[in-house]
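Hi R.,

Here's the input for the iron/sulfur cluster complex you asked about:
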Amino acid sequence: MPADKPHEACGVFAVCAPGQDVARLSYYGLYALQHRGQESAGIAVSDGREIMLHKGMGLVAEVFSGERLAALKGHLAIGHVRYSTTGASHPVNAQPLVFYCGRGMLGLAHNGNLSNGFTLRRELLEAGAVLQTTTDSEVLINLIARLNGDHNLPAAIRQCMARVEGAYSLVLLTEDRIYVVRDPYGFRPLCIGELHGGWVVASESCALDGVGARFVRDVSPGEILEISPDGPRTCAVEAAPRQAHCIFEYIYFARPDSTIDGFNVGRVRREMGRQLAREFCPPADIVVPVPDSGIAAARGYAEESGLRFEEGLMKNRYVGRTFIQPVQEMRDMGVRIKLNPVREAVAGKRVILVDDSLVRGTTSGKIVRMLREAGVAKVYYCLSSPPIIRSCYYGIDTSNEAELIAARKTVSEIREHIGADGLHYLSLEGLLRVFGEKARDLCGACFTGEYPVKIRDWAVGKFGFCACVAGVNR
Ligand code: SF4
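And here is the predicted structure with iron/sulfur cluster in place:
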């Protein structure tokens, strides 16, 4: 995961498929969602009588062996990959969470962040609840379990939805069925597919493709879906007055082969690149992407500008989560191991360098320096998103505001800071134009500060991101 990028905050997967190996299907589904979280992975399976769980720290392939998967027998499963935004990176916070409650066993996997999670957590603790994790996902499962006194889980979920605020795409597992919930604004993606008579739910459609399922539809904002061996059934739709799908899923997080809420991510990125070329096209020779997330936008830029697309930076695909960061005097080496310029392709050229976003501006300066050392004549840094000026409170780690370079510096100061000959951010209008009239259904609060759901639990500005959650973690 690049150090200077926003970090995704989890992926969820669920499958109901009698007669099929649901643990193995979940394993492959989570593999396809690995880009959404690399800290921990887990799968919970039910055979109709009890829920079995295995989870641990690390990548999907590190957490599960063939033996582990074979032990998880049943026809219902939920799975999770995690990157922590609330709650520390610790085994106890790995998901799915599985608990015994009044009606039996209940499992939950969550993608998103509650914007009133801290308040609800405090209320639960004051009411005598015993919590074992520092995640807001545990707040959700506690509320649902407590509200499920009359053993009507869809009603309990509805009541829970009336109390929680923020972003949540959930999959819940009982002994005999799965519940799927997307928050009323639809912040984080969630879709459902069909697989040989069974049903699969995933954060992104690439995971449906990965297990051979046929995409059926996106789960609607506010929808509570019940899935049993009889098939899926919508129990309720508690939609908000507007939708607020995270625009950053399209810019950076989601895989380009995923289609989210009607838009293919790769096509959207290409169109962002075209738009970028319409806005800023200085005299240049080649278009070079910062791999991998800048590739689609760079192709779009090249198509629109007529300039040649060139793979001028090579990415080392084997630098992963366990990469030991270099000591201070070797600090440039970290970037060089991850990215290296192709000298023969870029020397003497005026380069349009296309990247998706700039968070702290630490890596971009090093990339510009590397390109200059490789003999580049000019570097124009082009970003396929507007300046990030505010933190995200809906499940994405965009760093705290004090660390966001665009919150502190003007565009010309940033250009100077990274040492580029030119710097252009895609305008907000240009970005929204890509989505046509559907742009009104998007959240772009990290660019505008206009948060669709009120932020109750964070001290915005002075204390920056997660001031209260940091308190929870202690
Ligand atoms: Fe996505 Fe930004 Fe909105 Fe967070 S604030 S949900 S990152 S668009």
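One thing worth noting: Residues 459-474 have pLDDT under 50 and may be disordered.

Cheers,
M.
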